[in-house]
Write a structure and sequence with these properties.
The protein is 49% helix and 16% strand. It is elongated, with a radius of gyration of 21 Å. The chain starts with 7 loop residues before the first helix and ends with a helix. It contains 4 helices and 4 strands. It is of the alpha+beta class. A hairpin with a 2-residue loop joins strand 1 and strand 2. It has a 4-stranded mixed beta sheet with strand order 2-1-3-4, with helices on one face.
Amino acid sequence: MDLTKYTLKELKEIKTKIEDKIRNFDDGYFYVCNIQSYGNNYDTYLKNYINAEELFLNFNGDNGYCNLYTNSPLITLTDSDSIYYIENYELYKRWKVYKKLVNINKFTNKVKNEMGQVIKPVLYGNVKTNLIREQKINRILKN
């Protein structure tokens, strides 16, 4: 492709179109980047390995950390401590809920052991969501 015949404005338009094409390309695998940065912890869902690797490398420790969860064999990164291969997205969602509940359970048991009483963690969201979370916490605490 000969790019010398294009003006700077045309080249910028081509660049924008290519970046949009790459960003929206779906390679058939799932990529979830769990980002922990400046007190925030959130998930970003991506469609292809190029975007996932780019985001992963952006959070290299200076401005936060990124854990990548995927079922893709296309990932070329070698940082195996922060890359997790998981069979499918449904398993990831179930694991995420389980991990949150286990962390709440650990916190509750720690408080129970140190103070001799149970202090429930603050629950966020609407009343229905809080009720569901509280029921899950209670089921875990009974086990």
